[in-house]
Design a protein that fits this description.
By secondary structure, the protein is mainly α. Helix content is 70%, strand content 9%.
Amino acid sequence: MKNKIKDFLIQNKLISAFIIIWSLFLVAFIIMLPFNALFNWVAITAIATWVLSGGVLAAIWQIGEARKSTNAQIAMDLFRELREDETVEKLQRIYHLTQSDKNQLSPIAKNNIRHILDRFEILGILVEKGIVDKDIAIHTYGGASALRCWYKLHPYIEQMSEELGPWKINYEGYTRLCLDYFINHNLPVKLCIEGKDIDILAELQEAKSKPRSWTEIKRDMKEKPVYFYPTLDACVETHAKQLYNRTSSELLKNPDDKLFQQRLETVRLFLESVDFKKLRKEWEKYLVEGKKVAFRVWQKNGKAHWKMTVNQ
């Protein structure tokens, strides 16, 4: 915050210096006008050019200031909205959603969820663009609330992303920023469900629920990977075949969908090129130890590539 104030003061000093120098040149030209008729036309041309350039620079500065003012107003409106009783009530409803609730969301519940996610998405954009300071966004705007919502809603967001393409990615990036911040500063985030305190930070460090950083999101937007989370009951190959079948069904409904086409091709290449018996030996031992395993699969130059990550 201090750095932003310092930058603002420096910027205003530079603007003031420019105006003073601009005014001095203008006065000097006016004083020189009576001494030489030939010089008069040169001086008049120079003055006109100087005035025009000064006007252009002033206009650019005013546009920049207007944009800052508009962005600041958006940030303040969002700050107030996230503290309204209606918003707090919607957050509480999300926190207490059960699995059966999430499987059968009413239109009103979906609207409430999207309302909250839209606000966090806007906040994520403001932070990612540097309009709102990240520390202020985490402490003042509701970093803990963003984490609790992600814990409850990330399967729903993942489902919507499969149907619509990348969805609420700035909310996800903001949530990861909050997660890293609270962990690094050793600040707990809890959620009480049915009388039991859930450690949100511990839960969100698991591979399947951990939000991606903005860097990871941009990478995934380019590579469009798929993710598999094997269990002792369902191996990587089983998950891959299930996704292949689901994507094939979706393509029958939407044959021109580029996302489904690329996903189907990625899974096909993966299924055809991997020795799954050999691969199982690599990940199964971690599941037996109680660890979580995730596979990230993408294609490049007509070949499937994959990476395994293991979390406690």
